[in-house]
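>> received
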Amino acid sequence: MDKGSRNPSRHALETSRKLRSEMSVSEKHFWAAVRKKAIGFTCKRQVPVGPYFLDFYFPEAKLCVETDGEQHASRLEADRRRDEFLATCGVATIRIPTLDLFDSTGVAFAKWLHVVREACLERSGRPF
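>> returned
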């Protein structure tokens, strides 16, 4: 992602701070699992890129992770346009259904963490 695609305006920074302080339960759950390089990569929350705010962003891998609640079923076209915009900035997007984060066995959540880590490794160029 080049600097031109970032949106460091004062409004964007204030909005990012507000979004970080008002994270959903699913975002808090995912953040607890990836913060402090828990999967080997730095993760940032609510990063502004163009007109969008990325739920989670792994800068070394140029990877966005979105936790998608049920409301996203009615936003498929908007999400597709957003993902395409991010791709033009060199950012790949992984969308995790919120329900998978709260699977009673924890298997689905562990699977997604593995998918995110593997994507980070592949996109960063680090050896596996």
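>> The mean pLDDT is 89.
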